Amino acid sequence: VSNRGDKMEGDTIFGKIIRKEIPAAIVYEDEEVLAFRDIAPVAPVHILLIPKRPIVNVAAATEEDGVLLGRLMLTAARIAKAEGLEETGYRIVTNNGAHAGQTVFHLHLHILGGRALGWPPG
Ligand code: AMP
Predict the structure, then answer these.
(1) pTM for the complete prediction?
(2) Ligand 1 centre from 88 Cα, in Å?
(3) Which of 46, 99, 106, 108 is labelled catalytic?
(4) pLDDT 10s per residue in the chain (122 long)?
(5) HEC string of 38-87?
């Protein structure tokens, strides 16, 4: 499966959310990225931030995705600030592959906050 098709290739449940085929609690959207609340939150604030372009994960990203990856990180910080997390702190996580527990194969950043988070992760 291609990781950069412009139609249904590499499609996941997040593709359906991008196309508004299934509902999501969207907190931010622009031409390139979309953020929505995780359906099974593990912290008081748990937001997923995704590129609209369906990159599988960071391992599948290429040089030409570099600007978009940077944009995701900067957007995550802006969303965290808007959610009131800047002072207390927050975590940005991206799961890559089996050992990390990646379940949706469309790159996403988890933005987690609203409570003290354990380290190291389980
Ligand atoms: P990961 O395990 O890193 O691949 O994360 C996938 C995340 O997507 C999980 O935290 C799920 O709870 C979340 N998720 C799956 N389906 C949906 C959905 N329809 N709306 C919002 N979040 C979802």
Answers:
(1) 0.94
(2) 24
(3) 108
(4) 444 444 455 799 999 999 999 999 999 999 999 999 999 999 999 999 999 999 999 999 999 999 999 999 999 999 999 999 999 999 999 999 999 999 999 999 999 999 999 999 98
(5) CCCCCCCEEEEEEECCCCCCHHHCCHHHHHHHHHHHHHHHHHHHHCCCCC
